[in-house]
Write a structure and sequence with these properties.
- It contains four helices and six strands.
- With 132 residues, the chain is of the alpha+beta class.
- The protein folds into two domains: 77 residues, no CATH class; 52 residues, no CATH class.
- The strands form two sheets. It has a three-stranded antiparallel β-sheet with strand order 1-2-3, covered by helices on one side.
Length: 132
Protein backbone atom coordinates (compact mmCIF):
# COMPACT_ATOMS: atom_id res chain seq x y z
CA UNK A 1 0.00 0.00 0.00
CA UNK A 2 1.37 3.42 -0.94
CA UNK A 3 -0.01 6.81 0.02
CA UNK A 4 -0.01 9.37 -2.77
CA UNK A 5 0.71 12.91 -1.57
CA UNK A 6 -1.46 15.75 -2.88
CA UNK A 7 -0.41 19.37 -3.18
CA UNK A 8 -1.50 21.96 -0.61
CA UNK A 9 -4.18 23.80 -2.67
CA UNK A 10 -5.78 20.49 -3.63
CA UNK A 11 -5.58 19.27 -0.02
CA UNK A 12 -7.23 22.48 1.23
CA UNK A 13 -10.05 22.08 -1.30
CA UNK A 14 -10.64 18.46 -0.23
CA UNK A 15 -10.69 19.44 3.46
CA UNK A 16 -13.11 22.32 2.86
CA UNK A 17 -15.47 20.05 0.92
CA UNK A 18 -15.27 17.42 3.67
CA UNK A 19 -16.15 20.03 6.31
CA UNK A 20 -19.33 20.89 4.38
CA UNK A 21 -20.37 17.28 3.77
CA UNK A 22 -19.55 15.62 7.10
CA UNK A 23 -21.97 16.32 9.96
CA UNK A 24 -20.50 18.14 12.95
CA UNK A 25 -19.39 15.61 15.52
CA UNK A 26 -18.81 12.82 13.00
CA UNK A 27 -15.57 11.03 13.70
CA UNK A 28 -13.75 7.77 13.16
CA UNK A 29 -12.16 5.36 15.58
CA UNK A 30 -8.65 4.11 15.02
CA UNK A 31 -6.46 1.56 16.76
CA UNK A 32 -2.89 0.57 16.03
CA UNK A 33 -1.48 -2.81 17.09
CA UNK A 34 2.27 -3.43 17.24
CA UNK A 35 2.85 -0.44 14.95
CA UNK A 36 2.17 -2.82 12.06
CA UNK A 37 -1.63 -3.26 11.96
CA UNK A 38 -4.30 -0.58 11.96
CA UNK A 39 -8.09 -0.53 12.36
CA UNK A 40 -10.08 2.49 11.15
CA UNK A 41 -13.84 2.50 11.43
CA UNK A 42 -16.97 3.74 13.15
CA UNK A 43 -17.49 1.15 15.90
CA UNK A 44 -17.56 2.20 19.54
CA UNK A 45 -16.60 -0.36 22.17
CA UNK A 46 -20.09 -0.71 23.64
CA UNK A 47 -22.91 -3.27 23.45
CA UNK A 48 -25.08 -1.12 21.18
CA UNK A 49 -22.36 -0.85 18.51
CA UNK A 50 -21.72 -4.57 18.76
CA UNK A 51 -25.33 -5.75 18.53
CA UNK A 52 -27.61 -3.01 17.21
CA UNK A 53 -25.88 -0.25 15.23
CA UNK A 54 -24.65 -0.64 11.68
CA UNK A 55 -20.91 -0.12 11.85
CA UNK A 56 -18.14 -0.19 9.29
CA UNK A 57 -14.39 -0.64 9.62
CA UNK A 58 -11.27 -1.81 7.89
CA UNK A 59 -8.35 -3.71 9.40
CA UNK A 60 -5.05 -3.40 7.49
CA UNK A 61 -1.81 -5.21 8.17
CA UNK A 62 0.74 -2.80 6.76
CA UNK A 63 3.40 -1.04 8.86
CA UNK A 64 3.56 2.26 6.91
CA UNK A 65 -0.08 3.34 7.37
CA UNK A 66 -0.05 1.91 10.90
CA UNK A 67 2.90 4.15 11.84
CA UNK A 68 1.21 7.19 10.26
CA UNK A 69 -2.03 6.59 12.16
CA UNK A 70 -0.05 6.06 15.40
CA UNK A 71 1.70 9.41 14.85
CA UNK A 72 -1.65 11.12 14.22
CA UNK A 73 -3.11 9.61 17.40
CA UNK A 74 -0.07 10.66 19.44
CA UNK A 75 -0.30 14.21 18.07
CA UNK A 76 -4.06 14.50 18.66
CA UNK A 77 -3.69 13.38 22.27
CA UNK A 78 -1.76 16.58 22.94
CA UNK A 79 -4.63 18.84 21.81
CA UNK A 80 -8.26 17.78 22.12
CA UNK A 81 -8.26 15.00 24.67
CA UNK A 82 -9.78 14.58 28.10
CA UNK A 83 -8.91 12.12 30.81
CA UNK A 84 -12.04 11.07 32.69
CA UNK A 85 -11.72 10.09 36.33
CA UNK A 86 -13.36 10.33 39.70
CA UNK A 87 -13.41 13.60 41.62
CA UNK A 88 -12.07 14.02 45.17
CA UNK A 89 -15.29 12.55 46.64
CA UNK A 90 -14.69 9.26 44.81
CA UNK A 91 -18.14 9.34 43.17
CA UNK A 92 -18.45 12.38 40.88
CA UNK A 93 -16.74 12.47 37.50
CA UNK A 94 -14.13 14.97 36.35
CA UNK A 95 -12.78 15.63 32.85
CA UNK A 96 -9.13 16.70 32.82
CA UNK A 97 -7.90 18.46 29.69
CA UNK A 98 -4.76 16.83 28.30
CA UNK A 99 -2.69 19.66 26.86
CA UNK A 100 0.86 20.97 26.98
CA UNK A 101 -0.44 24.55 26.95
CA UNK A 102 -2.88 24.55 29.87
CA UNK A 103 -4.42 22.46 32.64
CA UNK A 104 -8.13 22.54 33.21
CA UNK A 105 -10.57 20.33 35.12
CA UNK A 106 -14.29 20.19 34.31
CA UNK A 107 -17.03 18.86 36.60
CA UNK A 108 -19.47 18.40 33.71
CA UNK A 109 -18.85 16.97 30.26
CA UNK A 110 -16.91 19.57 28.22
CA UNK A 111 -18.14 20.88 24.87
CA UNK A 112 -21.71 19.66 25.43
CA UNK A 113 -24.30 22.37 24.85
CA UNK A 114 -27.33 22.84 27.12
CA UNK A 115 -29.54 21.74 24.19
CA UNK A 116 -27.61 18.46 23.91
CA UNK A 117 -27.86 17.93 27.67
CA UNK A 118 -31.62 18.50 27.52
CA UNK A 119 -32.01 16.11 24.56
CA UNK A 120 -30.01 13.41 26.35
CA UNK A 121 -32.04 13.85 29.53
CA UNK A 122 -35.35 13.57 27.62
CA UNK A 123 -34.28 10.54 25.58
CA UNK A 124 -32.52 8.62 28.37
CA UNK A 125 -35.66 6.87 29.68
CA UNK A 126 -36.28 5.35 26.23
CA UNK A 127 -32.83 3.77 25.79
CA UNK A 128 -32.50 0.29 27.32
CA UNK A 129 -29.87 0.24 30.08
CA UNK A 130 -27.99 -2.68 28.50
CA UNK A 131 -27.35 -0.57 25.37
CA UNK A 132 -25.71 2.31 27.24
Amino acid sequence: MRMVPIDKPEKRAVLEKAKRLVPKGAHAKAAVLDRSRVYIGSMNLDPRSDSTNTELGIFVQCPDPAREVARAIDASLLHDSYQVGFGPDGESLQWRLVSKKRREVFTSEPEVTPITQLRNMLLAPFVPEQLL
